Amino acid sequence: MKVYRSKIDWWLIIIIFIVFCYPMIEGILSKDYVMFSVSFGVLSLVFLMFKSIKYKIDGENLQI
Q1: Which run of H or E residues covers position 38?
Q2: Burial of 50 (0-12, 13-18, 19+ CB in 10 A)
Q3: Is 63 exposed, middle or buried (0-12, 13-18, 19+ CB in 10 A)?
Q4: With DSSP H G I counted as helix, E B as strand and the rest as coil, what are the percentages for the chain, rounded to 5?
Q5: Could you report the per-residue pLDDT of 22-62, keeping only the tens digit for each?
Q6: Angstrom distances, CA of residue 21 to CA of 25, 28, 46
Q7: Alpha-carbon gap, residue 25 to 32, rounded angstroms
């Protein structure tokens, strides 16, 4: 069985980082820590999902 990690393009990481970092910075500047926490949590979950995607090839079967 071979295991391959999914490749993530750098431009996708930059776009997601910009989209979620703006509310985080805005939350810090306006002292709205709920907005910061939610944005940080969603950004963390997105990066964890990116990191955990793997493809397994076992003979003729493909598992994602």
Answers
A1: helix 33-52
A2: middle
A3: exposed
A4: 60, 20, 20
A5: 888 888 899 888 999 999 999 999 888 888 888 888 888 88
A6: 6, 11, 13
A7: 10
